[in-house]
Amino acid sequence: MVRSMLSYSTLPISFWGYALQTAIYILNDVPSKSVPKTPHELWTGRKPSLQHLRIFGCPAHVLKGKTEKMESRSETCIFVGYPKETKGYYFYSPSDLKVFVSTNAKFLEKDYMNDFVPRSRIVLNEMAGDTIPREVPQPNPIVSSDLTQDQQPTIPRRSGRVRTQPERCIGLGESVENLPDDDDPYTYKEAMEDVDSSYWQKAMQSEIESMFDNKVWSLVDLPKGIKPIGCKWVYKRKRGMDGKVETFKARLVAKGYTQKEGIDYEETFSPVAMLKSIRILLSIAASLDLEIWQVDVKTAFLNGSLDESIYMLQPEGFIENGQMEKVCKLQKSIYGLKQASRSWNIRFDQAVKGFGFIQNPDEPCVYKRIKGDKLVFLILYVDDILLIGNVVGVLTSVKEWLAKQFDMKDLGEASFILGIQVIRDRKNRTIALSQASYIDKILSRFSMQDSKKGMLPFRHGIKLSKEQVPKNEHEEQLMSRVP
């Protein structure tokens, strides 16, 4: 395949490395007789798109960077492959004898095929036999192509490197679902078959008791013409700073994706505190030596009221005996509903404002209350609350008031916020944030916990930019599957 690619291109034999790299990329996107699915699909769980594939060796007009006023804005280059580190294409510039990455190019594949002449009849510009084009990094490439499959970077033999066999099927024997043994159950059946089934049973019982205490629903006959929404259990092992399991949580979640706008809900928007706002307030707290306390609202979404009539199936494992045909008519909001987060936020906002807190106009989830020289900041992130203040007695009164309004859990001085460890040195008035446990979890997920340490997690000299950040949920999922 590599020999054919080079034969049908205008490139010299010294480009065999790029041809091999491109061949591996293509083979990972096509099925074989022994494996009906493509290696790409086996690795990611999704069928690959072939729309971005181009003819190896075809010419293309590539947009230049900065140019002079009357200078051409593009140059004719040759396509030589797909980069591993970033999205885009590899192009060879005959004028500069360099290979670079770009996403702004117009491929001339039709002209290339129409004007094709066998390679043996083409007189190439003389190149030294041992001269290999140099790769130069392109500053901040703009992402426009969906290139997600990993490739093994290949350098020609003359470089003197130690050669390794290319991987034909990247991740062929692995599955994204094959995570560590302590993965959280996905269904009720899995929870009951899990080694920690007794803990999951207690967690579900606690959740159901919270539902009854908050009078979330009442069992009724399903009205004619109404289709109830479903529900499911979501399980989560909550870990501490050392990565050890501290609690088992089971959340009953409505299948809100079956709701219809205008019938089951109207508005859904609900704000959350930005991470940069939390960092700013933590910095202020460190500088002024303020207290930082943390509380957690139990089943926060159950505090929101509903304006719509919503009917839900009874939760699996907790169907009332003798009332199996009845459904739950929701009287309070529940996790999973489209409007659940908004209902809870409205309820909380009204409560804290009634207690004298003032909402920040630029950050709706940050509140403050000032009385003389006594200052209290309140930060809300869904159901996590941070209290920052300079007087312990005032913070205590605020915490006691919150406990009367909502079912809360006092977590004491903040040490673990949103999965981030807070390391505080009050003597020197500094705060450090660490995600070491999360890094260890990711390494374990990809079986890299025993890997050798390195100064950087990527090749030296690589250029990164905000343009390479995932733009949607699909791209985020693809990125999460790659170590």
From TrEMBL:
What are the UniProt keywords, alphabetically?
Hydrolase, Metal-binding
UniProt region (Disordered), positions on chain: 131-164
Query: Which residues fall in a compositionally biased region of kind Polar residues?
Result: 141-154
Q: Where is the Reverse transcriptase Ty1/copia-type domain?
A: 214-457
- Which Gene Ontology MF annotations are present? hydrolase activity; metal ion binding; nucleic acid binding
Domain of life, per UniProt, equals Eukaryota
Instruction: Indicate what this protein is called per its UniProt record.
Output: Reverse transcriptase Ty1/copia-type domain-containing protein
In which organism is this protein found? Answer: Acer saccharum
Ranges where the Retroviral polymerase SH3-like domain occurs: 59-111
